[in-house]
Amino acid sequence: MPLIISRAFVDAIVEQSRAEYPDECCGVILGPAGSGKASRLKPMINAAHSPTFYEFDPKDLLALYREVDDKDEEIVVIYHSHTETEAYPSRTDIAYAGEPGAHYVLVSSREEIAPAIEFRSYRIIDGVVTEEEVSITD
Amino acid sequence: MSIEVRIPTILRPFTKDQKAVAASGASLTALITDLDSQFPGIGDRLLENGALRRFINIYVNDEDVRFLGGLDAQIKDGDSVTILPAVAGG
Known about the structure:
Number of strands of chain A: 9
Strand order of the largest sheet of chain A: 3-2-5-6-7-8
Shape of chain B: globular
CATH superfamily of chain B: Beta-grasp domain
Order of helices and strands of chain B: EEHHEEEEEE
CATH architecture of chain A: 3-Layer(aba) Sandwich
Strand order of the largest sheet of chain B: 2-1-7-5-6
Shape of chain A: globular
CATH architecture of chain B: Roll
Order of helices and strands of chain A: EHEEEHEHEEEE
Number of helices of chain A: 3
Strand content of chain A: 35-45%
Helix content of chain B: 10-25%
Largest interface: A-B, 28 and 17 residues
Helix content of chain A: 10-25%
Distance between the termini of chain A: 19 Å
Number of helices of chain B: 2
Number of strands of chain B: 8
CATH topology of chain A: Cytidine Deaminase, domain 2
Structural class of chain A: alpha/beta
Largest sheet of chain A: 6 strands, mixed
Radius of gyration of chain A: 14 Å
Radius of gyration of chain B: 12 Å
Oligomer: heterodimer
Structural class of chain B: alpha+beta
CATH class of chain A: Alpha Beta
């Protein structure tokens, strides 16, 4: 299943990754439950404030899941940035991946990587990483 | 004694896809023991070497159990317990 995402969201995530550099940035895109549609971008705070790790604050995490439940939404995309490495899931990313239904989006904020290749999407299920096509809509 | 436990997607294969289940126990340890007896194997996904797994968050009502004594957290009738996978990585 390709990830279908708007140009505005791609730009906003890339912009966030640069604004929060040298720390990793993170967030989610939500959509109506069962739709798989990436419709609402929600940047999150990286509670780890680190160039090599990201983590949603446990309180923010609970609030997020409550909000998703209350609004009858689902987490369609979980994204974060890599600051010095390519946009491919690290061993830590794979170990932590706990949402089998989500697209895991990686963006690299390394300046030298061309924008065309720095935004990638994966499924991470039971430790297996499968890259998927990203289809950007205007 | 009945406590509602909300189960995240990744653990629903253990609960036959139920989003919420009822369990009992006066402490988190007792609750997890009861969950594991109802849904064999789920305890292993929550605990590692007798401690809470790093990438699992458990809340009693609105509070992270890490601030309530961890596995010793007290639970009473009518409380709601939520299990969520951490969203984290490197």
